[in-house]
Amino acid sequence: MNVSIQTVDHEDQRYDTVGDWRFADDGSLKITVSQLGDARYNALVAVHELVEALLCQHDGVDQDEVDAFDVAFEAARQEGNVDEPGMDPRAPYHFQHRIADGIERLLAVELEVDWGHYERAVNSL
Asked: Is residue 113 in some structural domain?
């Protein structure tokens, strides 16, 4: 298994997202996380993306469908809406996203991250 996780400037993401995953042609998993200014926050996004990607791969959820859904969701986003695309029940990876969210929240407790502060940092980008 080859997994790389890289923190990037938000503008360098493939689309308007804080965390992104994709499997390369060689099977390696590439995860990019927008710089949030707190290493714990960056780690929470990275773990979420890792869990979500592994579950999607295991469950046969097509990466292109995930990307297409996310891009369309972001394009249609209403001002003030801070919902994550994966929380939408129509998302092809809704179940996998919810599992990743639960693990992310558990890890946040152990890292002593205030979830409200974390969400504000994520939504500020």
From this structure: yes
